[in-house]
C-alpha cells in the first residue's frame, strides 16, 4: 500500500504541477502583471502548502526534528534538486529574469531564521516577527504588481487581453493548489512509513524523505515551467517557496506551539541551507544561465548532502 501511495502521489504531482504553471501564466497575462509576481505568491503558496501542513502536524506531535527538518531540508532541496533537475533536463535561461530583489528577501529571511534558531526555540514572539516580515515582503510584491500593471496599461492603452477564459484559469489554479498537497501527502505518507520501518532517525527522515516529498510540488511545477520555457515561474517558484517556508510555515507553526531546535541543525544543516541559497547569487545577479552542466553539479551536491546525512 505504501508503494502505491508513492506512485499515485508522484502522478498527481506531475499533473497538478503542470496545471498550476499553466494557470499562473494565464493569470499573469490576464491581469497584466509579470509571471514572476504570480509565481512568488500564488504558485509559491500552493507549492508550500505540504510543508505547512506537515510541519504543524509534526510540531503538535512533539516531533520538532521532523518539523524543522521538513523546512530546512525542503529549502535545500528547492535549490539543489528542484532547480538542478529541470536545468539538467531542459536548461533554465535567466537572461530575462527579474528576481534580484526577491532573492535578497530570501537571503534576508534565511539569515533571520538561522539567527533565531541559534538563539533558542522558535516561540510565539518569533512566529509573530516572521509573519510580520513575510507580510512586508508580500506588500512589496503587491506594489510591484500594481506598478507593472499600470506600466503595461500606459504602454498598450489597455490591459492585455488573452484568449484563456477566467474559468479555465481558475480551474487550472485550483487543480494545482489542491492537487499538489494531495499528491505530496500521499507520497510522503508512503515514504515515511517505509523509512520508519527501516529504523531511520526522525530528523534524518525530516531532512530527506519528508523534505524531498514536500518539495515535489515545487519540482513538478519547476520542471513543467522549464519545459514550457517559463523561467520566471521556475525561479520565482523556488525563491517564493523558500521565503514562505522560512517565514510563513515556521511563523505559523511557532504561533501554534513552541518549536525546539535540535543541536545538529545549528552545527550543520542551517549552514548547508544558507550555502545552497548563496549558490544562486551569480545566476540571478549576473544572469548566468542554469545549463545542463550546472544542473548536474547541483544534483551531485544534493546527493552528496543526502549521503552525509546517512553515514
Secondary-structure map:
Layout: H1 2-31, H2 35-60, H3 64-80, H4 84-89, H5 100-119, H6 124-156, H7 166-197, H8 202-227, H9 231-256, H10 263-278, H11 281-285, H12 292-310
Helix pairs in contact: 1-2, 1-7, 1-8, 2-3, 2-7, 2-8, 2-9, 3-8, 3-9, 3-10, 3-12, 5-6, 5-9, 5-10, 6-9, 7-8, 8-9
The helix content, as a percent range, equals over 70%
Q: Please state the second-level CATH architecture.
A: Up-down Bundle
Number of helices: 12
- What is the domain total for the residues? 1
The overall pLDDT, averaged over residues, is: 80
According to CATH, the homologous superfamily is NCX, central ion-binding region
Descriptive overview:
With about 300 residues, the chain is an all-alpha fold. It has a single domain, classed as NCX, central ion-binding region (A middle domain of Talin 1). Helix content is about 80%, strand content about 0%. It has twelve helices and no strands. It has helices at about 1-30, 35-60, 65-80, 85-90, 100-120, 125-155, 165-195, 200-225, 230-255, 265-280, 280-285, 290-310. Helix 5 runs antiparallel to helix 10. The radius of gyration is 19 Å and the shape is globular. The model is unreliable at about 155-165 (pLDDT under 50).
Amino acid at each position: 500500500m505504501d508503494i502505491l501511495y508513492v506512485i499515485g502521489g508522484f502522478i498527481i504531482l506531475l499533473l497538478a504541477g503542470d496545471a498550476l504553471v499553466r494557470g499562473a501564466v494565464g493569470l499573469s497575462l490576464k491581469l497584466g502583471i509579470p509571471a514572476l509576481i504570480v509565481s512568488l505568491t500564488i504558485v509559491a503558496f500552493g507549492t508550500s502548502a505540504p510543508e505547512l501542513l506537515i510541519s504543524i502536524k509534526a510540531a503538535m506531535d512533539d516531533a520538532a526534528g521532523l518539523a524543522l527538518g521538513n523546512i530546512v531540508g525542503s529549502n535545500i532541496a528547492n535549490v539543489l534538486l528542484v532547480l538542478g533537475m529541470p536545468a539538467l533536463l531542459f536548461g533554465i535561461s535567466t537572461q530575462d529574469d527579474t528576481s534580484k530583489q526577491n532573492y535578497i528577501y530570501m537571503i534576508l529571511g534565511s539569515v533571520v531564521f538561522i539567527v533565531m534558531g541559534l538563539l533558542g526555540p522558535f516561540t510565539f514572539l518569533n512566529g509573530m516577527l516572521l509573519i510580520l516580515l513575510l507580510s512586508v515582503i508580500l506588500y512589496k510584491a503587491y506594489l510591484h504588481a500594481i506598478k507593472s500593471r499600470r506600466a503595461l496599461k500606459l504602454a498598450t492603452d489597455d490591459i492585455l487581453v488573452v484568449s484563456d477564459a477566467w474559468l479555465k484559469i481558475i480551474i487550472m489554479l485550483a487543480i494545482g493548489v489542491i492537487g499538489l498537497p494531495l499528491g505530496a501527502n500521499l507520497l510522503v505518507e508512503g515514504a515515511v512509513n517505509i523509512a520508519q520501518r527501516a529504523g531511520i532517525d526522525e530528523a534524518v527522515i525530516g531532512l530527506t524523505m519528508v523534505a524531498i516529498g514536500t518539495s515535489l510540488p515545487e519540482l513538478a511545477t519547476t520542471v513543467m515551467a522549464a519545459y514550457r520555457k517559463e523561467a520566471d515561474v521556475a525561479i520565482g517558484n523556488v525563491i517564493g517557496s523558500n521565503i514562505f517556508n522560512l517565514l510563513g510555515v515556521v511563523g505559523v507553526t511557532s504561533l501554534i506551539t513552541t518549536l525546539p531546535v535540535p543541536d545538529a541543525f545549528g552545527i550543520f544543516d542551517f549552514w548547508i541551507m544558507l550555502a545552497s541559497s548563496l549558490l544562486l547569487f551569480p545566476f540571478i545577479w549576473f544572469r548566468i544561465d542554469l545549463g545542463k552542466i550546472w544542473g548536474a553539479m547541483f544534483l551531485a551536491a544534493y546527493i552528496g548532502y543526502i549521503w552525509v546525512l546517512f553515514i
